[in-house]
Amino acid sequence: MAGAAGPGTGPGAAGGDGDDSLYPIAVLIDELRNEDVQLRLNSIKKLSTIALALGVERTRTELLPFLTDTIYDEDEVLLALAEQLGNFTGLVGGPDFAHCLLPPLESLATVEETVVRDKAVESLRQISQEHTSVALEAHFVPLVKRLASGDWFTSRTSACGLFSVCYPRASSAVKAEIRQHFRSLCSDDTPMVRRAAASKLGEFAKVLELDSVKSEIVPLFTNLASDEQDSVRLLAVEACVSIAQLLSQDDLEALVMPTLRQAAEDKSWRVRYMVADKFSELQKAVGPKITLNDLIPAFQNLLKDCEAEVRAAAAHKVKELCENLPTEGRETIIMNQILPFIKELVSDTNQHVKSALASVIMGLSTILGKENTIEHLLPLFLAQLKDECPEVRLNIISNLDCVNEVIGIRQLSQSLLPAIVELAEDAKWRVRLAIIEYMPLLAGQLGVEFFDEKLNSLCMAWLVDHVYAIREAATNNLMKLVQKFGTEWAQNTIVPKVLVMANDPNYLHRMTTLFCINALSEACGQEITTKQMLPIVLKMAGDQVANVRFNVAKSLQKIGPILDTDALQEEVKPVLQKLGQDEDMDVKYFAQEAISAVAQRLTKLDFPVKDNEEPSAPGADKNHFLRPRGPGEDTGKAHRERAARVVSEETVEAARFRGTDAAKGPAHQFHVNTRDTLAQLEIAELVHFSQSRD
């Protein structure tokens, strides 16, 4: 692209008189010729700015020819250009000059990269609406004909997307030519062109006269549906939906249904998959009579297809198919012709098929009613609830509300909940873990009262499971339940039971109490945390097991941001100082970590310096952070220098202190974390949190 001729040759060219205000435009124009792809891309994205600066005349005569000559550029640049040109009509003088945009877009519609061609076609379709009928036949239709008869398949594939936008406003003679070109593309030697034609067949049929649809489109549909390439045949199925909507029942039966029956039994699983995927649309298009006579038998075959992908696609459509059946006799049709095949899919060998069925089967309960649901569907739900595939179980639990509305919560609890409880107590911990993950969802389906009655005890039992992963998941489960049911429910139902575990003889269960407090504190808020949880945490600081004690320090660090200043100063601070002198090194380490975190919290709350404290340096103003800055005074710099002196002195003192008093025991040791020594010493000095020294 470097060195290519462009609109103008320098800054002066952009404005015509060397105006400095147009220099940025000249830079953008120069970047269109730059060797750097990114610079060219940036300039293309600002093409509208360049066009505005040049004016409509120079845009038409200089910029567009230049752009037409740059079609050999990188794909990402061409993609941006194709997108920009679609909104360029106003920049070239309005609809009267919209045809000026066709040459560069025609070139873009023939390039090898598919996304560029698709974007060029999209822009051409947009511009076609801005042409007058006369201009359309004079400029746009010839472009479509050139593309349709191009030597390369790229141009012919692009032409397929343009027939439907120019046909409605063309004259009768031109319409005949357009239909002839489309017929030629449908029988093209290149499979890519036939695919493009098949994908646009339904769209083109919608703008044709009914007689033309019967005489020309239906034969094309039949030929494409029997094409040697399955990629063409499956696209013909999609076109069948649009064609079926245009024809009467008699014409459908005679012209379309033989081909559709053939597609439902096609030798390629991809074609059968497309029939299954479009089944609801086909059902609505052909009407109830043909559905009962032809589509129901075809659907039965798809549900028992040899390919799992086809069975899964059909299973996804079970609910929609049943909903779209005529109300009269619907229940009988489902029970006799659909349900037997559904029962087989419940025990299918492929998990994707079972998962697809589980996602929709619950919806049948509202269609079949209470009695049929209890007698026929509940056994299927139970089987899927015990399925080894977690996605199947999740899909059943996710849709329990559908069944609840039909049979009621009591009936549901008698039938499905025993299975859930059984899974929750399964010997394999991974099965228990899966049920825990579904519990918040299940709780939302069943409501708080039913949950407390049936499942609350189960959730508490998981907290003392012998597998850590279960206890951890149960802790997270409690947090989600509190978020769902509210803090009042937590205060009355959950928190008391959790706090009782603090006295459990098993230290693992006592640690679980701390983990629960960590998870629940944020959800429960400051009041519950301070009044009910904090006293238990502080009491556990005297636990005999070191693991519990250092988890106390971690818990205090976790809940510190939730507590107020008084609780931190009067209750948390003394306990952390005591833990900081613990004989266990891990306890001391985590206590010091907590001291640093809590000290930072207090620092934020305590600034500015209080009146009853001594200034941090001789002559320092106690309200240093509040008083206005004096002329020439850099208060920030002064403060940083004083802080540096304090930190330096404390560091030296700490080093001397460790060397001389280490033998005096834990009470006189000063734990220094080398990773952030300066920060900790500075904070400790500012909030008076340091250890006492001789």
Question: How would you describe the overall organization of this protein?
Answer:
The protein has 694 residues and is an all-alpha fold. The chain has helices spanning 11-15, 23-31, 37-45, 47-68, 75-85, 102-108, 114-128, 133-148, 153-160, 163-166, 172-186, 191-199, 201-206, 210-225, 230-244, 249-264, 269-277, 279-286, 288-303, 308-316, 318-324, 330-346, 351-361, 364-385, 390-398, 400-407, 409-415, 417-424, 429-446, 448-454, 456-462, 468-485, 487-500, 507-524, 526-539, 546-559, 565-579, 585-606, 635-661, 677-686. It is built from 40 helices and no strands. It starts with 10 loop residues before the first helix and ends in an 8-residue tail after the last helix. 38% of the residues are buried. Mean pLDDT is 79; it is low at 1-21 and 607-694.
Percentage of residues in helical conformation: over 70%
Mean pLDDT: 79
Number of strands: 0
| Beta content | under 5%
Structural class: mainly alpha
**Biggest sheet: strands, sense, closure?**
none
> How many DSSP helices?
40
What is the radius of gyration?
38 Å
Please state the oligomeric state of the protein chains shown.
single chain
What would the principal axes of the Cα set say about the shape?
flat
Distance between the termini: 79 Å
Protein name: Serine/threonine-protein phosphatase 2A 65 kDa regulatory subunit A beta isoform isoform X2
Domain Phosphatase 2A Regulatory Subunit A helical: 98-282
HEAT repeats: 24-62, 101-139, 178-216, 217-255, 256-294, 295-332, 338-376, 377-415, 416-454, 494-532, 533-571, 572-607
Organism: Mustela putorius furo
